[in-house]
Amino acid sequence: MIEHTVTFRLKHPSGSPEEKSFLQAAAALAQLPGVRDFSIRRQVSPKWDHSFGITMRFESQADYDGYTHHPDHVAFVEGRWIPEVADFQEADFVPLVP
After folding, report:
1. CA 8, CA 86: separation in Å to the nearest integer?
2. Which one of 12, 28, 83, 96 is least enclosed by Cβ atoms within 10 Å?
3. Can you tell me the distance from the alpha carbon of 34 to that of 16, in angstroms, rounded to the nearest whole number?
4. How big is the chain by its Cα radius of gyration, in Å?
5. Model-level pTM?
6. Dihedral pair phi/psi, residue 83, rounded to 5°
7. 24-28: long-range pairs with CB below 8 Å, 24+
8. 52, 41 contact by CB (below 8 A)
9. For the chain, what is the total number of helices (H) and then of strands (E)?
């Protein structure tokens, strides 16, 4: 199991139509093959300047790789993410085996 998490801040003003449009486009990624437990959350802590977080899980490395290279994901990254995200942090986690 791989948990893919990204936190980010958009270039758009909070509550703007552009912000809403971006988040709707991001939510469509939940429909891609292999994506499990997809969620988008608004960040509320003053300790971090990223406004949102997206988390999803994949059963296997093959599912994660398929998502990463899927044409809809690539199009989202190139057409929305790169031009509209001001800053982000990405992390991928696997369960710790004792």
Report:
1. 7
2. 96
3. 31
4. 14
5. 0.88
6. -75, -20
7. 25/76, 25/80, 26/54, 26/76, 26/80, 28/72, 28/76
8. yes
9. 4, 4
Read off φ and ψ for residue 74, nearest 5 degrees. -60, -45
pLDDT tens per residue, range 66-78: 999 999 999 999 9
Distance, CA of 62 to CA of 21 (rounded, Å): 30
Question: Each residue of 13-42: pLDDT tens digit?
Answer: 999 999 999 999 999 999 999 999 999 999
Angular region, 59: left φ>0, alpha ψ -120 to 50, beta rest: alpha
Structure-block tokens of residue 3: 């948990």
- Contacts of 45 by beta carbon, 8 Å cutoff, 6+ apart: none
